[in-house]
Amino acid sequence: MQATPSSDRFLSILRAHGRAFLATILGTALLAAAIAFALPNWYEAESTMLPPQDAGGTSFGLLTGIIQSAALNQLGLATSSTPSDVFGEILKSRTLNEAAITRFGLTKVYRKKGSDRTLKEFRRHLSVKVNAAGLLTVAFEDRDAQRAADVTNFLVAELDRFNVETYKTRGKRLRQFLEGRLGDVEHQLTVAEDSLQLYERVNKVVSAADNEAARGMADILAQKFSLETQRSFVSSYTEPGSVERAGIEKQLAAINQEIGKLPAIKKEGARLTLAVEVQRKLVVLLTAQVEDARMQETRDTPTITVLDAATPPQIKSRPVRWLIVFVATLVATLGCAAWTAANLTREP
Q1: 3-state secondary structure of 47
Q2: pLDDT of res. 262
């Protein structure tokens, strides 16, 4: 096969500059290797945890969810849809991050001017992920393997401490709120019972308070009162149109539709009997809610389950030195090839 002018030209350039090409490629590879081995090692420590899977099954319904939402509101974070997402947002919050920076003296380590730059550098080395199964993973990298593990475990511990304190604080606030409502309902119950007794004495009748219709209507009215109580509490810390308030309003609308279908009560005795039944149910309901809030206020149990605590990693996470050398060598080779191709287009 006869050589073409282009191939002759290519061989001519290669013979003329082959040594220079080889020197360039080898020099680049050696320089990349020197730089790669001069780079410090970074180690990444990782911890995996399992947050609570539900809101706790309290009689207040969304009690725990309300407290978690209030916690995020305190941090200025958006409400997330699952406990794992909520805890992930808290782990990335400025409050916890700055606590770790202070605890381990990372301001001196990073040597950044100002707290904002130090925080930004800290977050560059922090990773928080939630997988499809709901497992929450937090990882932190540092040049010191032990410090990487210590910072990771510290963040997990701070998350649990923050959650416990939040439950206690919000539980106390909720208990006080519900105790006020309970006092009002107990007073209304006394008034309703007195009115019913007066009606029975004057009319010399005994009203039946245990019929099915009265109990059914009392249940629905008690549910409405419970939702209104939740709305009132949520409104104390959320803006109009929030997800929590919108959900409660939707439930209230459904309850009001059911109430609209109830038959009208014309007899005075039946109305008084229903009023007493409703207030009694509300007393029972609010008493249980107060106890739930009191349990939240006094709880000191862990809020998360740590599946894998962070340990000092023995293998570095970066730099990947062979990759640095390979990429640098490849770039040098492609550069030489591009220079050769450019010269092929020139007139000899």
Answers
A1: strand
A2: 60
8 Å CB contact between 109 and 119: no
pLDDT tens per residue, range 26-41: 888 888 777 777 777 7
pLDDT above 60 for 45: yes
What angle do the packed helices 94-103 and 145-203 form, to 10 degrees? 140
Amino acid (1-letter code) at residue 324: I
Three-state secondary structure call for residue 79 = coil
Sequence letter at residue 346: R
Give me the mean pLDDT over the 113-120 stretch: 90
Phi, psi of 186 (to 5 degrees): -60, -40
Whole-Å CA distances, 271 to 67, 199, 206, 276, 281? 37, 11, 13, 9, 15
- Give dist(CA 77, CA 65) in Å, integer: 15
Predicted pLDDT of residue 134? 78
- The Cα–Cα gap between 96 and 79 comes to 17
Are the C-beta atoms of residues 50 and 159 closer than 8 Å to each other?
no
End-to-end CA distance of the chain: 23
Within 10 Å of residue 295's Cβ, how many Cβ atoms?
15
Q: What is the pTM of this model?
A: 0.57
Q: Which two tokens stand for residue 321?
A: 């030195």
Q: Locate tokens 């099915």: which residue?
A: 212
